[in-house]
Design brief:
Blueprint (H helix, E strand, L loop, with lengths): L1 H25 L6 H37 L1
Helix pairs in contact: 1-2
């Protein structure tokens, strides 16, 4: 359980960094509401992917560690 929490925090931080970079550099001041929504949608998708990916990596590492102990 502790490993899942750690991996979730790492994924959340990675997602925050990617969202920040996307919002700050790629679409800093959107001209229209649609540009703003598109930028937030992309950064949200990247953030969600990072969090999910780190969760899967944590799960697979835990399974591998449990198999090696058996």
């Amino acid at each position: 359980m502790k490993n899942f929490i750690k991996q979730g925090i790492i994924g959340g931080v990675m997602g925050f960094i990617m969202s920040f970079i996307m919002s700050y550099l790629m679409t800093p001041v959107p001209e229209t509401l649609m540009d703003h929504a598109f930028g937030n949608g992309i950064s949200g998708a990247i953030s969600g992917f990072m969090g999910g990916f780190m969760g899967i990596v944590g799960y697979l590492l835990l399974q591998k560690r449990n198999k090696s102990k058996s």
